[in-house]
Amino acid sequence: MPATTGLRIVLAEDSVLLREGLIGLMARFGHRVVAAVSEADSLRDAVQTHDPDVVVTDVRMPPGFRDEGLRVAVELRRIRPGLPILVLSQYVETVYATELLNVGDGTSLGYLLKDRIGQVEEFLDALNRVVRGDTIVDPEVVRQMLRRRRSSLGPLTAREREVLALVAEGRSNAAIAAGLVVTEAAIAKHIRSIFHKLDLPQAEENHRRVLAVLTFLRS
């Protein structure tokens, strides 16, 4: 997938070092941070003022350092459906990921751990995918969800649960096939079976993939 360049980004992060580091990282790859704020309330105002291509925000921000950033992200998506938002978190909080992706149709949303920023190509790929309409969940969050919810995914085989977890991470069929060392045709067959067993309505495949991820998160 070709990289998206020239994105206009609103960034919300209370750590000065991380905020400045992200500004520099985005600039290196042809993007521009049009506003960088340190409080959740300022994030709301910045989005209204600058109309960005994508929002990148921390979960926990001043004044309470609980879930202020997430709350504003959810609010923004309700006001502006389709606004791409990538949420960053210091810790694995599956409830935050679920709440975020439950807003609207679940597209153009991502939830990543901050550790992922150090893996620059992976982080930028996630940002690109969110802007292009994909749903992205950090692999570690997916692993924890999968461990906790195996029983609720009972209709799926072990391989299908594995494939669904990789779909939730935002991986393409080709990437899943390469990781599992099988053919793309085999992955496509597993995904069709997942759609059928989860009783997902007929729709365009990308939308059904999002529905499958949301079913996984809500199960």
According to DSSP, the number of beta strands is: 6
What structural class do the secondary elements suggest?
alpha/beta
| Contiguous runs where pLDDT drops below 50 for at least 5 residues | none
Query: And the CATH topology of the largest domain?
Result: Rossmann fold
Number of domains: 2
Biggest sheet record: 6 strands, parallel
Q: How much of the polypeptide forms β-strand, as a percent range?
A: 5-15%
Overall description:
Helix content is 52%, strand content 13%. It has two domains: 130 residues, 3-Layer(aba) Sandwich (Rossmann fold), CATH 3.40.50.2300; 70 residues, Arc Repressor Mutant, subunit A. The two termini are 31 Å apart. The protein has 219 residues and is of the alpha/beta class.
How would you concisely characterize the structure shown here?
With 219 residues, this protein is α/β, with parallel strands linked by helices. It has ten helices and six strands; from the N terminus they run βαβαβαβαβαβααααα. A six-stranded parallel sheet has the order 2-1-3-4-5-6, sandwiched between helices.
